[in-house]
Write a sequence for this structure.
């Protein structure tokens, strides 16, 4: 019944991000105890394959899906990369990784710079140097999600000095925040 409900959610989803959410729900393991999740992963792989053409235009860098701005498109690419890896679509994961590398340097993705940089060093720590050069030219993060991404990037890229420097100049409200 759970997988049937997930498939129904997938089929009735209005857009690609909702479909990604439905696929992710198919492979959530903490919701139910199963001796084997093979059926769930098989169904998720079928659903993922069905929507490949929907997100493929994002790989070119300049395209955005209907109703999505650059920020939403970058978030979607990050989600797709994680899902592709989880489901074993390694070639897709590599293509999305390349698209993210291109996106981190594009002006329209400036608001997602920190999240993309964080995603790239989580994918492969060899992206640390490249993302560091992009971050060096960027203004300091101001929004909560940007700060979290900066701290995560610093942790995963082992550039703790960047985080320390940020906090030296950050306003007291940020230094004392639990976010």
């Amino acid at each position: 019944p759970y997988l049937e409900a997930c498939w129904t959610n997938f089929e009735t989803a209005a857009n690609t991000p909702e479909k990604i959410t439905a696929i992710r729900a198919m492979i959530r393991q903490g919701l139910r105890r199963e001796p084997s999740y093979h059926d769930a992963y098989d169904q998720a792989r079928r659903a993922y394959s069905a929507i490949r053409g929907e997100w493929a235009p994002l790989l070119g860098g300049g395209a955005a899906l209907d109703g999505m701005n650059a920020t939403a498109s970058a978030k979607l690419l990050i989600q797709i990369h994680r899902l592709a890896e989880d489901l074993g679509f390694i070639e897709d994961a590599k293509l999305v990784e390349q698209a993210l590398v291109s996106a981190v340097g594009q002006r329209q993705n400036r608001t997602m710079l920190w999240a993309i940089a964080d995603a790239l060093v989580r994918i492969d720590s060899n992206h640390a140097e490249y993302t560091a050069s992009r971050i060096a030219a960027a203004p300091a993060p101001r929004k909560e999600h940007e700060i979290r991404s900066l701290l995560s990037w610093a942790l995963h890229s082992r550039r703790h000095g960047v985080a320390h420097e940020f906090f030296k100049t950050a306003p007291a409200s940020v230094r004392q925040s639990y976010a």
The two ends are 38 Å apart (CA to CA). The mean pLDDT is 84. Residues 64 and 73 are 6 Å apart (CA to CA). The longest helix spans residues 38-55.
